[in-house]
Amino acid sequence: MTADGIDGLERFDSPGKGRGLRVNRAYRVGELLFVCPAYSHVLSVSERGYTCEHCFARKEGLSKCGKCKKAFYCNVECQRGDWAMHKLECSAMCSFGESWCPSETVRLAARVITRMKVQKEKSASEKLLLLNDLEANLDKLDNEKREMNEADIAELHHFYSKHLDFPDHQALLTLFAQVHCNGFTVEDEELSHIGSAVFPDVALMNHSCCPNVIVTYRGTSAEVRAVKDISPGDEIYTSYIDLLYPTEDRMERLRDSYYFTCDCKECKTKSKDKVKLKLRKVNELLELCELSMEKMGSIFEDSNVYMLHMMYQAMGVCMYMEDYDGAVSYGEKVIKPFRQLYPAYSLNVASMYLKLGRLYMALDRSAAGSTALKKALAIMEVVHGKDHVYVKELQKEISTHQK
Length: 403
Ligand SMILES: C[S@@+](CC[C@H](N)C(=O)[O-])C[C@H]1O[C@@H](n2cnc3c(N)ncnc32)[C@H](O)[C@@H]1O
Ligand SMILES: [Zn+2]
Ligand SMILES: [Zn+2]
Ligand SMILES: [Zn+2]
Description:
Annexin V, domain 1; three-stranded antiparallel beta sheet; alpha+beta; binds zinc ion; binds S-adenosylmethionine; Serine Threonine Protein Phosphatase 5, Tetratricopeptide repeat; Beta-clip-like
């Protein structure tokens, strides 16, 4: 690591895209470009009890904060390490009781403000971009977005008044705008939401629907790995959104949340849109609202993304109802088009193989299970890295089933 910056990488002005990140040497598929510790992070309320608030380790036997009984930690070190952040919420959760419900964005912003107070030097998360300098796109906010930011600020004042020195209103508006277009959601290997975080250096990467890197998480750090071979001088692009959907949907999402129009190859050629939108009998479309899942199947090709979306949701419902056979049947329908529609190395494809494999195993279909788990493993070794705990755990899982 150089004193300033990150080896192999360089910040530059990317025409039409603001600042961006490019490489000054070649990278191969699976190679790690850089690691960025979170500047601030927050665990989702739904993960409490399963994951350590401080280091995001997921394990059994975590110990809880004696005061609020809501935050859980690996050990005393993690609890101590987290106190500066947890104290923002610990007593407030006790006094608000059931009515304590700030959004995750507000919770994250409170932590960012707290860290900014003490972090006077450049942090290890800001080798290429300072938190203060994150793009806010303030000039692009419409009234609806402005109102949303005001609502966030009101919520922040409501839930964090005791322990927070609030910056002025304009600074808060900027901060929320920055968090909205640069914040990350942290997900596990099955793409379940764990928390939210800010990684300034990672936020320097622009978006493409044909990304050449993927961001994964190890504890509270973000890791960026190549999913295509990258040549010296190339800009690196990650994807900000789910790439399953057709161009028009992606465009809308990117404009709404990030205020730009994507000009990547896929947005220009729309090469996958046709498959993504395939219908069997278009004239029946109007009756759609009243249709059962089965009937919809006769209208939409299985590769139609809205059909896929529904089947994916249905799979989740089956899991919730513990109908594992049902979940498998949806998973099996989804996996093939997923492979076709997502890029070669995709977290969505890996997590689907993983879920499917684990379902097969639960249903004692170990041959199918092991095949699916191995497919998940092959992708995860590239996107997460061979030494990632998710990869190690999965290898163990596969070998236990082989015994
Ligand atoms: C997370 S930041 C990326 C870094 C940003 N370019 C900067 O200078 O800080 C997201 C913002 O970058 C810009 N951006 C990202 N990808 C882009 C793209 N493909 N084309 C144009 N602008 C893009 C948009 O303004 C977006 O809101
Ligand atoms: Zn911990
Ligand atoms: Zn507590
Ligand atoms: Zn695009």
